[in-house]
Write a structure and sequence with these properties.
- Helix 1 packs across helix 2.
- Strands 1-2 form a two-stranded antiparallel sheet. The protein has a two-stranded parallel ribbon with strand order 3-6.
- It starts with a strand and ends with a helix.
- With 177 residues, the chain is an alpha+beta fold.
- It has two domains: 111 residues, no CATH class; 58 residues, no CATH class.
- It contains seven helices and eight strands.
- Strand 7 and strand 8 form a beta hairpin.
């Protein structure tokens, strides 16, 4: 099987004919590259894209990636380098948001992840014995089993927790209990 890293660009527009990802880099991979090699490839591709759009007035706003840990780390090297300046047009929009990360890359480039991969990683964390710790409460698969046995659905906190766990744990996993 041949594997490749594909980098595509998409124009931010309401026109569905223009709002499609167009590949402009295809690089063969053996899945052994480290995050630094991925960062170099992203840096080269970003620079090429930025240069190609000078005449059109378009610019690079965001680098999005799937759930691959090397690409996440590589994207972070490009997009989490400094804080948004208070003179930036996006500062007014983002600064009032509590707990919002105001780090960005050169020219206010931000990073995004495919939300399905983020939820999948969160789900996998919950399936581990340690799970995650929220407000000194360990949330893991054992809590899900306990909650079902004790039927916490009546309490507001228990109901919310049950809803979150049901959303995050896929149906096939839930049916194993």
């Amino acid at each position: 099987m041949v594997q490749a890293t594909v980098i595509a660009a998409c124009v931010l527009t309401e026109d569905p004919k223009e709002y499609v990802a167009r590949p402009f880099v295809i690089s063969g991979t053996c899945k052994t590259e480290d995050y630094e090699a991925q960062a170099k490839l992203l840096r080269l591709a970003s620079s090429a894209l930025i240069r190609s759009q000078v005449d059109t007035g378009r610019r690079l706003y965001c680098i999005a990636t799937d759930g691959d840990s090397r690409r996440r780390r590589a994207s972070a090297l490009l997009t989490l380098t400094h804080h948004v300046e208070n003179t930036s047009p996006i500062f007014k929009l983002l600064s009032p948001l509590p707990l919002f990360n105001l780090k960005c890359g050169e020219d206010d480039i931000t990073m995004d992840f495919d939300w399905k991969h983020v939820l999948k990683r969160f789900r996998n964390t919950l399936l581990r014995q340690n799970g995650i710790l929220i407000d000194n409460t360990s949330i893991n698969i054992k809590l899900k089993r306990t909650q079902r046995a004790w039927n916490f659905k009546d309490t507001r906190r228990g109901s919310l927790l049950m809803t979150i766990l049901q959303l995050l744990l896929c149906k096939s996993t839930s049916q194993r209990f």
